[in-house]
Specification:
Layout: E1 3-4, E2 7-9, E3 12-14, E4 21-26, E5 31-37, H1 41-58, H2 63-79, H3 81-92, H4 96-117, E6 127-130, E7 133-141, E8 144-148, H5 154-167, E9 171-175, H6 182-190, E10 200-202, H7 207-215, E11 221-225, H8 228-240, E12 244-248, E13 253-257, H9 263-275, E14 285-291, H10 295-306, H11 327-338, E15 345-348, E16 363-366, H12 373-376, E17 383-389, H13 392-400, E18 404-405, E19 407-411, H14 415-424, E20 429-432, E21 447-448, E22 451-452, H15 457-462, E23 465-473
Parallel strand pairs: 1-5, 8-9, 8-11, 9-10, 11-12, 13-14, 13-19, 14-17, 16-17, 19-20
Antiparallel strand pairs: 2-3, 4-5, 6-7, 7-23, 12-22, 15-16, 18-21
Length: about 475
């Protein structure tokens, strides 16, 4: 019997008032694994009320106690890794080993960072900036935060959402993606004996549910990781209530490869970073810009290495990456290939992998022009283009000539080239001779249509705070 999932509100799992149900499908084989409710206004009201009530006391919990709770939650993630992995694999088809390492272990590590950050929030030092008066700054939690997480890394993105928000003293109403809710619900259950009731609430639903959360009167900040389209909708909805917004949106990451790079080593690394998680990563390499003299050698090496990156097997231990997340996205990626201009050539891949599920071959395309959709628009799949450039200036111009500005990388053995290009690339992250690597201590977030606000690091925690000036007269 297929399970119907429940919301998590005020420390308990409860049935949603909404009667519409969504099918949760395993993308490795298309089989139905669960049903999830589409939460309606009364469900959202209940979650917001629980979060608001909990905030009244949670905001006064000392940072040392919030730290201990987040540390306990990190330990709980690791202790329940197998359950979290299986719950997520049912919804994403991701390679289990990858979920365990890149989401459970990494998520626990990042929770431990946020736990420490709870005790390190800073403000301007107290002093007499006006004669006869002392001023100081309070850094305070915002209140209730509404958060919408994506389907590409469901557990890890839930951690990125709740970690800084809770560390700063906020309470949360979180909506996981409509296709990948199960690992988030396991996470919620793990908090039952750790967090006070109402501090974390999870509401299931679709885009309309998320929109209703954003426009609800209670949250002081709304946060989403998702597409540019979704980010614009969230920013617009937040603006109606003058709420703050935190947006981590799409990407079209370039990798600039100069002729002096170690081409064989660079080709293997670029292919792996591009096709990791089936390219379903807004920081994934999607555009390779290579100096003309090195183009043919790099493409040949990339194709050779890409053919070793397997996908399509029902035994995920045989795969480098799993399937695309859902049938709609699978169809969209196929449509991108169907619409390729005639001047483009497929060096490898380009079609479905296997005969079951939503697997897609790792694909390398040459001959694309800068104005082509395949270069300008986010595909969010295992597809990369390779373009030629002559000069450093041309490479920078081509790299920056997209609406996205989240991530990029430079591949060279020349220090000056690396420093100049990292300065001139208009992206929130620039890697040198590597890509996609993240650490909890460093910020993650983009510019332009990739959104605003930072995840991870102290900058990410500060995004979930507000600043208050307090002044007192000295001779009262």
């Amino acid at each position: 019997m297929v399970q119907t999932l429940q919301n998590y509100i005020n420390g308990e799992f409860v049935d949603a008032a909404g009667t519409e149900l969504l099918d949760i499908v395993n993308p490795t084989n298309g089989e139905l694994v669960a049903k999830a409710p589409v939460s309606v206004a009364s469900d959202i009201d209940a979650a917001m009320a629980a979060a608001k009530q909990a905030f009244a006391s949670w905001k006064h919990v000392p940072p040392s106690q919030r730290q201990l709770m987040l540390l306990r939650l990190a330990d709980a993630l690791e202790a329940n890794s197998d359950e979290l992995v299986e719950a997520q694999h049912r919804n994403t088809g991701q390679v289990r080993e990858m979920i365990a390492a890149e989401e459970v272990s990494a998520g626990a590590d990042q929770l431990r960072f946020f736990a420490g950050a709870a005790r390190l929030l800073e403000g301007k030092s107290a002093g007499e900036y006006l004669e006869g008066h002392t001023s100081y700054v309070r850094r305070e939690p915002i209140g209730v935060v509404a958060q919408v997480a994506p389907w590409n890394y469901p557990l890890l993105m839930a951690v990125w959402k709740i970690g800084p928000a809770l560390a700063a003293g906020n309470t949360v109403v979180l909506k996981p993606s409509d296709t990948t809710p199960e690992s988030t619900l396991v996470l919620a259950r793990l908090t039952q004996d750790i967090l006070p009731a109402g501090v974390l609430n999870v509401v299931l639903g679709n885009g309309e549910t998320g929109a209703a959360m954003v426009e609800h009167k209670t949250p002081g900040l709304v946060s989403i990781t998702g597409s540019v389209r979704a980010g614009i909708a969230v920013a617009t909805g937040a603006a109606k209530g003058l709420k703050r917004a935190h947006l981590e949106l799409g990407g079209k990451a370039p990798a600039i490869v100069f002729a002096d790079a170690d081409l064989k080593k660079s080709a293997a690394a670029i292919a792996e970073f591009a096709f990791f998680n089936a390219g379903q990563d807004c920081t994934a390499i999607t555009r390779v810009l290579v100096q003309e003299a090195a183009h043919d050698e790099l493409v040949a090496a990339m194709v050779e290495h890409t053919k070793t990156l397997k996908t399509g097997s029902q035994d995920d231990s045989e795969n480098y990456f799993g399937p695309l997340n859902n049938i709609n996205h699978f169809n969209a990626v196929n449509a991108v290939m169907d619409a390729l201009p005639a001047h483009c050539s497929i060096a490898t891949g380009g079609k479905r992998a296997g005969d079951k599920g939503y697997f897609f071959e790792p694909t390398i395309i040459t001959g694309a022009k800068q104005e082509d959709d395949i270069v300008q628009k986010e595909t969010f799949g295992p597809i990369i283009t390779v373009q030629k450039f002559l000069t450093e200036a041309e490479a920078i111009e081509m790299a920056n000539d997209v609406e996205y500005a989240l991530a990029s990388s430079v591949w060279t053995t020349d220090h000056g080239t690396a420093m100049r290009t990292s300065r001139d690339l208009d992206f929130g992250a620039v890697w040198i001779n590597t890509h996609i690597m993240l650490t909890a201590e460093m910020p993650h977030g983009g510019f332009k249509s990739s959104g605003y606000g930072k995840d991870l690091s102290m900058y990410g925690v500060e995004d979930y705070t507000r600043i208050k000036h307090v002044m007192t007269v000295l001779d009262a």
